[in-house]
Amino acid sequence: MQKKNKNIIISDATLRDGNHAIRHQINKKQLEIYCKAAEKAGIDIVEVGHGNGVGASSIQVGLSNLSDLKMLETSRKFLKKTKLGVHIIPGFATIQDIKIAINVGVDVFRVASHCTEADITQKHIDYIRGNNRKAFGVLMMSHMASKETLLKEAKKMEEYGAQGVILMDSAGAYVPENVSERISFIKRKLKNLPIGFHAHNNLGLAIANSIEAVKAGASMIDGCARGFGAGAGNAQLEVLIAVFMKLGIKTNIDLYKVLDCGDIAEKYLMDVIPSISSTSVVSGLSGVFSGFIKHVAKQSKKHKVNPRDVFFELGKRKAVAGQEDLILDVIKNMKKNKNKPI
Amino acid sequence: MIKKINVAILGTGNIGTDLLFKTAKSPYLNCTLFSGRSNLSPGIKMIKKTISKNKNKFKNLIVSSKSVQSLIKESNKFDIIFDCTSAIFHKKNEKIFKNLNKKIINLTPTQNGYMCIPVLNLDECNKSLELNMVSCGAQSSVPVAYSLAKVFKKKIKYIETVSTISSKSAGPATRLNLDEYIYNTQRAITYFSGIKNAKAILNLNPAVPYINMQTTTYAQIKKKNINKSELKKFKDVLKSTILKMTKYIKGHKMIIEPIITDNIISVKTSTIGRGDYLPKYAGNLDIINCAAIAAGEYYAKEKQKHNN
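^ Those are the sequences you sent over. The predicted structure of the assembly is below.
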């Protein structure tokens, strides 16, 4: 359970994960409005950028409306006490991209890899620490690895210099037992390493899983205003703060002001309010990256296949984040096999 | 009767050891020196064991743990050096390589040497003493980028390539050098296609059974309407390019033919390895090794022509 007098750090991914939901088309005005609201609410960290982080604007995942530089410069202007954070996936982003972010004045770098591949983050974490910026490690799609593997990978990140490690439930596949089992195990072995948790709501458990994470010893929790994030969305930030209040879990956040963040996000950021669509449920069940939902929906419609089948097939193939090009491959194979005489 | 050209392999890791097996199958190359830094390296141990079991295998091969020093000592025994060490090591020994005055085929992630994509530029490669094999992603995507540029020329705004490889096939050096992979692959795409705006992405996937290497290459075209004759022409150029590639990398094929979505053309290829020393799913390692062998063999053939 939470240490006395130590508030839970809230990392707000609205302007990064939410970008998935609007095909990475966020604009300057939206960044400005939301950053101001987050600053007022006393959010600890606001993450900004393309859905897959800096350097990830691509045909594969989606081309950004604004360059990384523009997004970060704009947000920097309106964040004072609140820290500006970025997500980085080596393989997409390079140290060149990190240099740009450092020059703009990004405070927090969250360096991510698929949950079994922590060693690709070594150089990047090292570079960030060498430049006196805060670096966290992120293990994405963490439902795909055992607690022992996650411990091993978290340990590597700690050795590289990460000042904390965040487990991401990128597919929204966790049930509360999965969260407590993994986080308490890692926490027992790596007592001094702050652990974070990033939930998705595919199975309607984002808030429940985040509470479970804190109970198991996590000290950093991710949320998104109105749940604005990939697929079914993330742990809804304002709900998270309210529930934490009720449970006596302390944060640095003002309730009314964070409720405003939710209203502002609904009014200015999103096309539709995140909901758990039937494909989101299947994405969670099959353990496939939430960011795939828009791509699967588009391709399934075009090729007249059932998106649910596509998700289960992607799950069988153990697709990782960044493998959006596998979707078409899966659909083509499904169609080919369908036409085969039995 | 073909007289084989002698080669030295520096570095006895996965890449070097697989190359040794490939030279043993080559009608043009003969490996005389296999040199690493430690007698305990799995590659050296394995080769020594193979030789002790069968005296006829790897005849006249010197196995050494004296690294570059053995290159200097045995320098009269070979004409080509395959450098399968690391970027740092390659740079450190630049001078020694130069003084040896041999053909160098550089498989490390440095930018030293003339970039070689066998299906595109073997002829020009003979003019340079040092060749650079770039990266696995470049070996699979650059021929596609080149074919795109050949047909659509200045209409292309941007090229992007995404490779996904099995985690198991990505050794510690690959993992530590992801940035170099990206820079070098992008540089090669720009060099061979003339398109300045290029991006390379690499994914590692740990799925079991291990996945084969897959590469998707995209081009963003300036105008929306790509006419049918251009698309047909592109398909023809691409097919013949890939067919030529299969002469040196047999397991390379197109798995999704060119598709147009709005103003984007995409092509997907997959590469299955030959399974000489490395497992078949490691198509990423095989494609760069097969390309290096193709470059070595071409050099050997040309050298013989001149000698006759």
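DSSP finds 14 helices and eight strands in chain A. Chain A touches chain B at residues 58-60, 90-92, 94-96, 114, 116-117, 119-120, 122-123, 317-320, 322-323, 325-326, 328-329, 332 (CB under 8 Å).

Shout if you want it in another format.
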